[in-house]
Amino acid sequence: MRALMDEVFGEENWISDIILTKTPGLTAEYIASTSDYIIWYSKRKPNLKYRALFTEKGFGGEGSKKYDKAVDSSYLPYALSSEQRSGVQTVPDSIRVFRHGDLTSQRQGRDNSEAGAMSFQYARNGVSFRPARGRGWSTTKTNMDRLLFADRIDITGKNLSYRRFLKDFAAFPKTNIWDDIGGIQSRADPKVYVVQTAVETVKRCLLMATDPGDLVLDPTCGSGTTAYVAEQWGRRWITIDTSRVALALARARIMGAKYPWYILADSPEGQRKEAEVTRASPATHPTYNDIRHGFVYDRVPHITLKSIANNTEIDTIWDNLQPAVEGARAALNAALSGHPAPFEVQTGGRKGVEIDFTATGEVELPSGEMAPANGFMEWEIPRDAPDDWPAAAKDALAQFWEARIARQREIDASIAAKAEFEFLYDKPFEDKKRIRVAGPFTVESLSPHRTQAVNEYGELIDEHDAAQGKRQGATEAENYRAAMLENLSKAGVQQSGRDDAIKFTSLVPWAGDWISAEARYMEGEVERRAGIFIGPEYGTVQRADLVACAREAADAGFDIVIACAFNFDAHTAEFRKLGRLPILQARMNPDLHMAGDLKAGGGNLFVVFGEPDIELREEGGMYRVELRGVDIFKPATGQVVASEPDDIACWFIDTDYNEESFFVRHAYFPGAEVPYKQLQTTLKGEVDQEAWDSLKRTVSRPFARPKSGRIAVKVINHLGDEVMKVMGVL
Description:
Layout: H1 2-9, E1 14-21, E2 35-41, E3 54-56, E4 69-71, E5 77-79, H2 82-86, E6 96-102, E7 104-106, H3 113-117, E8 122-124, E9 127-129, E10 135-137, H4 141-149, E11 153-156, E12 159-165, E13 171-173, E14 177-178, H5 199-209, E15 215-218, H6 225-232, E16 236-239, H7 244-255, E17 258-262, H8 268-278, E18 297-302, H9 305-309, H10 313-336, E19 343-344, E20 354-355, E21 362-364, E22 370-372, H11 391-418, E23 420-428, E24 430-437, E25 443-445, H12 463-467, H13 474-491, E26 506-509, E27 517-523, E28 526-534, H14 543-555, E29 560-565, E30 577-578, E31 581-588, E32 606-608, E33 612-619, E34 622-634, E35 639-642, E36 648-654, E37 662-663, E38 666-668, H15 677-683, H16 689-693, E39 710-717, E40 722-728
Parallel strand pairs: 1-14, 15-16, 28-29, 29-31
Antiparallel strand pairs: 1-2, 3-13, 4-5, 4-6, 6-12, 7-10, 8-9, 11-12, 17-24, 18-23, 19-20, 21-22, 25-37, 26-27, 27-28, 30-31, 31-32, 33-34, 34-35, 36-38, 36-39, 39-40
């Protein structure tokens, strides 16, 4: 496969082979297969759009083994137990896990002057430190103060270390091994197709390579997973399939689902959310709700020593909140002044020394700082008060910790907001008060359509020859016709009603230019002869083909022509009879392309869907279309009768048909008991009944005169069969 793809895209445009793990099949005869592959190529590798996706890092998972310490909800550090580090004991979410990193670096310069400049003395908890010889601090004195304010400097033995939290960068990029996809579908979106791809697989591919507003093409629609995912994530999409069953499943799946409402970056709500996340003033430029600007995404901060050291907002927070901390400390020391019981300090420059609250004056710490002999420094204050402390001291202690925690929480929030970050493209912010449903489908179909006939070598050939099967060699064409006739003989021709199916009593080849076989069936007690026309294996039957076929059948005395083809040109719908000779158009199931492997006679392989009975009328310069039903051929009587509109599942109007593609501009569902019942159930809320009822109608809303001079009406029955009629508008 790689060799083939190299030929198509060029080996220089190969990006990656993604290994997708899966559950092994229970019926494997030999070694079970547990993986699939996604082969990723770019049209031009230098122009590749790539958005990295991340796996969030959790304690006990990949990349967390060196994190052996934590701080509790009061920001007090402690060592994790062996049970916690091994995963035997769960670490609560409120616990922030960290490890120590080096706070010095090697400095080389002339006469080691640079190292000397960065080897200044620095105090932490009343103890002074200097870097080892030949090394210097990783940042300046001012920046070291910010690290100290942020509580990121710890004493480890005789050195200072940098406190690095697991959540400083709690993610790592996804690799090409996807072993966490899980099951195929969720209960909310169950599996409905035999080869349905997991939503998560398609989601990752789309999020890695596209942005909101980009166009995604899936030429093999299937159950519509690509379109479903693209719709959810704000991508435009085109999906294609030859099977009407697949398209019907995809249509129902997409239109019956609800989707999250992600906050647009180009919106007032987006500006406010972005300001909230980044702790900045909201943008004031005009907004236009343009999805191409993307969503407002959650992000994972990429906090580094440098980002903290350069964050000047920490100074402002310290200046604003530190007075409350100092005031509470002073109140605590005042409340304990004269307290008879000494208190042994366990941290800092007076570790292991008792503070005598009855003493007076100051003492000098190892750092050279002066501390009150009868009072606490900030780092010496205990978390809990002894039972014999007076009430005033206990109240002051509570106020101190409240102020200290508030200061630290504000600083941590600033650090996270001001740091560099990585967008989590799979986690846009959602407006929980709103939900979204699929918008209108722009292009419904490119079929029936006109195509130039080509042979097996891609060379243009005459349409007359193509219709006779001469696009292939004589042997291949004969084998194709024989396979089609074998299936037709056993399957017969189906219509919307089971009782109206045409079952042949005999079918034998016919050596005509257009007619391939003579088939016989019973019309009541009378046997009728049908001339069978088989359209080309690849291509579209034109009106001229049917005219020539009908003339040959009339000359041969046939009672009816059954024209079988994969595709009919839109204008063939206008040709239903030549004189007394009726012409039935039987659409061939695309499964017949696999005729060699297909069990003959299986399923609805040849289906007739009659001509829609449509009236176009003008009303005050505007136009309306009324659908009266569909003409159905009754083989038991030989008559064509009109069905009721309720027999039609849905019908669409392209009010300005360009003969190239069908745009759904009006959609109606007369045969549905409750239009969009699945969607109505999904929304789980009150709906405007009048709006629902407006979809269940056989007379269209008014529309203006088409610029092209044509409209097209497409009618679909409950089996998914469709027919289209083109009408000129003067």
